[in-house]
Amino acid sequence: MKFLRFGLSGILFFTLCRPILSQINTTPYIINLKYHYGFVMKHSINMAHLANQRPQGLEIDLYKQTTGIKNWQCYHNFPMIGYSFQYFHLDPKKPLGDMYSAIIYYSQKFLKSKKTFFSYRIGMGAGYVERRFDLKTNYYNNLISSRINYALNGRLSFTWKIQPKVILSTGIGILHFSNGAMKVPNLGINIPSFHIGLGIYLDKTEDSVYIGDHSDIWFDTGTRRAYGEYHIYANLAGGFKQVYPVEGKSWPISTLSLYTSKHVNHRSELSIGTDVFYDGSNKVALDTLPNPKNIKYFKWGINIGHEYLIDRVSLLTQFGVYLYDPLRLDKRIYQRVALKYSLPHTPLFLSMGLKTHLGQADFVEWGVGIKL
Questions:
Q1: What's the whole-number average pLDDT of the chain?
Q2: The pairing of beta strand 99-110 with beta strand 116-129
Q3: What residue ranges define each of the domains in the chain, with the CATH number in brackets?
């Protein structure tokens, strides 16, 4: 096996909240070792030759139950925060190589009893594949053309405490690898899998939950928010994308977004706004037309959205429609899923988002914005 060397991109998921006046007992970390058995999902007829395989995997999973020391933990019903490293071994006779991922995730319990609970988790991070597309040596691999990728993970699990310091967990999930259209081909790899594993508590065995001081209506990014408040956001983002033919030029893309939102509860904001997109890759299509004009590099649309608030981090989901799209190379409806991080003591925020057309990736954008 080759040695894995790649940098991990962390997500700043926790920040300082208001001080708690009472002393608390913290919950220990739990470490799990899990075995996975899955399959490569056939999500396109173009990758059918790669779908007939059954990858097996190992996972090291470390997580901690939040206790309410910060107000946002109480507002979100005491979620679990964890870190996961996964390895999947794929059929060596096929042009897909082994896969590695490092993920940070958010998990929530439901249907709890004294010794059992169900949970779901959503995570993202960095992924690495040993064998990528190569026009000369590995052209049958039309799923992934870069070794370093974005990794997304969703999971549903059942956990049973079989001993005071030992837990058994099992469930189903899906792991997705994609480079966000920075290089083509990029159909993406989806591996649904079943898992089973054992975990141990590294210290105490009982969850200690502390109910914090909730005198604030809301506490976020150093300011108080009241229900019904409106905010205006402006965001400028950019990146690169590649279109066919393969091994061609990477083109710059950028987005200017302006939207207003209403704070509806401790965890949610609803928004409506507008986007202007610049896509340099349109030149490939414009070169086939007579008298191309620069204005055709632009699109304009309107969107509605929802923002899920977790202290300084939030998850923004938007659905939009193009009102101006002269080339009509894509579907008229677009979506954006983005992570935002609000910088302390400033109205500024950082963002990383994925823009798609009905599930088909368009590009990944990195941005900076301001709350007006």
A1: 84
A2: antiparallel
A3: 29-201 (2.40.160.20), 221-371 (2.40.160.20)
Report phi then psi at 300, rounded to 5: -135, 135
User: Which residues are 171's β-sheet partners?
Assistant: 157, 195
pLDDT of residue 224: 43
61: which 2 tokens?
Answer: 């999973």
Query: What is the C-alpha to C-alpha distance for residues 279 and 299, in angstroms, rounded to an integer?
Result: 8
Structure confidence at residue 253 (pLDDT): 95
Q: Which residues contact residue 346 at a Cβ distance below 8 angstroms, ignoring those fewer than 6 apart?
A: none
Please give the model's pTM, rounded to 2 decimal places.
0.78
Q: What is the largest CA-CA distance in the chain?
A: 74
pLDDT tens per residue across span 160-214: 999 989 999 999 999 999 998 888 888 889 999 999 999 999 875 545 444 444 4
- Which pair of tokens denotes residue 94? 């096929």
Count Cβ neighbours within 10 Å for each residue of 182-200 and write b for 16 or more, e otherwise.
Answer: bbbbbbbbbbebebebebe
CA dihedral 339, 350, 67, 69 (to 10 degrees): -160
Summarised one tens digit per residue, pLDDT across range 319-365 is 999 999 988 888 899 999 999 999 999 999 999 999 998 877 899 99
User: Which CA distances in Å does 296 have to 267, 300, 321, 340, 363?
Assistant: 39, 11, 17, 30, 18
Q: What is the 3-state secondary structure (H, E, C) of 149-193?
A: EEEEEEEEEEEEEEECCEEEEEEEEEEEEECCCCCCCCCCEEEEE
Q: Are 88 and 57 in contact (CB under 8 A)?
A: yes
pLDDT tens by residue, 66-113: 887 877 888 888 899 999 999 999 998 888 889 999 999 999 999 999
